[in-house]
Amino acid sequence: MTLPQTMRAVEIARPGGPEVLTPCEKPVPQPGPGQILIALDYAGVNRPDALQRAGNYAPPPSASPLPGLEGAGRVAAVGEGVSRWAVGDEVCALLPGGGYAEYAVTNAAHALPVPTGMVLREAACLPETFFTVFSNVFQRGGLLAGERFLVHGGSSGIGTTAIQLARAFGARVFATAGSAEKCAACTRLGAERAINYREEDFVEVMRAEGGADLILDMVGGDYIPRNVKALADDGRLVQIAFLAGPQAELNFAQVMVRRLTITGSTLRPQSDLAKARIAEALEAQVWPLLSSGAVAPVMDSEFPLDQASKAHTRMEGSGHVGKIVLKVR
């Protein structure tokens, strides 16, 4: 594959709102040892991209300063020591950054084959969301078949993924969302009960069910003590973001007396080895579900690469259901 010297990309001109996302031209990156270069067809749009745009989520020192943490396309070049992938292979991949561009570099072990029957537009939505959900719900949170699982933001990319995976692995699924339309989307995906948080108290709903064995939360703030109240004895709370802030007042006596576990993680700062192990587990346990159609990404909307600002406006308006993608080429 003949590579150009430059590529179209979108950069963050300065910290700020969606309007600071600016089309630009950048040199095509080169893969180092253990890395691959991907000619991206599509890139996923995620909340961490907006945090980085606002100046609140700096990329690792070795990563591209361009936003974009996932994408799908074809391998354009391989670095020294890479044996699994060859030029021309279709892949989707978790990226350390740089996804809002025609080409991006990533660790070869963080790429996965495009599931059977899936187009690149859909595959671009898998890595960031599925790595996050699988590692936090199943590996960190230990969700088991038959347990009661509550996911906040059920109509988001994370939420729609978590509902489907938890249901596929035999859990009883509950979700919160902010409208009747979004609640209906959650139940269609497999939630046995969708709670409109504008009209109902999720704490009361979950306590009436016996409490949640596991809660996946990205809201934080005043949801933290409410989540603790909504947990069953021996329940677990996994925190993955703080849309309402990271601080809360909490009576930790409940944690001791009821044997609760509060944990959480963020994906980007984890080691290459940790991400590679998540990728291995996904390919073995989740990719067959995607190839069979038992689980599928929920698609909301698509924007051209040079309209990334409109994609961010759509995401931050919270009117979307599922994933937003950028069409790169």
Automatic annotation (TrEMBL):
<keyword id="KW-0560">Oxidoreductase</keyword>
<keyword id="KW-0521">NADP</keyword>
<dbReference type="GO" id="GO:0016651">
    <property type="term" value="F:oxidoreductase activity, acting on NAD(P)H"/>
</dbReference>
<protein>
    <submittedName>
        <fullName>NAD(P)H quinone oxidoreductase</fullName>
    </submittedName>
</protein>
<dbReference type="InterPro" id="IPR020843">
    <property type="entry name" value="ER"/>
</dbReference>
<dbReference type="InterPro" id="IPR011032">
    <property type="entry name" value="GroES-like_sf"/>
</dbReference>
<dbReference type="InterPro" id="IPR036291">
    <property type="entry name" value="NAD(P)-bd_dom_sf"/>
</dbReference>
<dbReference type="GO" id="GO:0070402">
    <property type="term" value="F:NADPH binding"/>
</dbReference>
<dbReference type="Pfam" id="PF00107">
    <property type="entry name" value="ADH_zinc_N"/>
</dbReference>
<dbReference type="InterPro" id="IPR013149">
    <property type="entry name" value="ADH-like_C"/>
</dbReference>
<dbReference type="Pfam" id="PF08240">
    <property type="entry name" value="ADH_N"/>
</dbReference>
<feature type="domain" description="Enoyl reductase (ER)">
    <location>
        <begin position="16"/>
        <end position="326"/>
    </location>
</feature>
<dbReference type="InterPro" id="IPR014189">
    <property type="entry name" value="Quinone_OxRdtase_PIG3"/>
</dbReference>
<dbReference type="InterPro" id="IPR013154">
    <property type="entry name" value="ADH-like_N"/>
</dbReference>
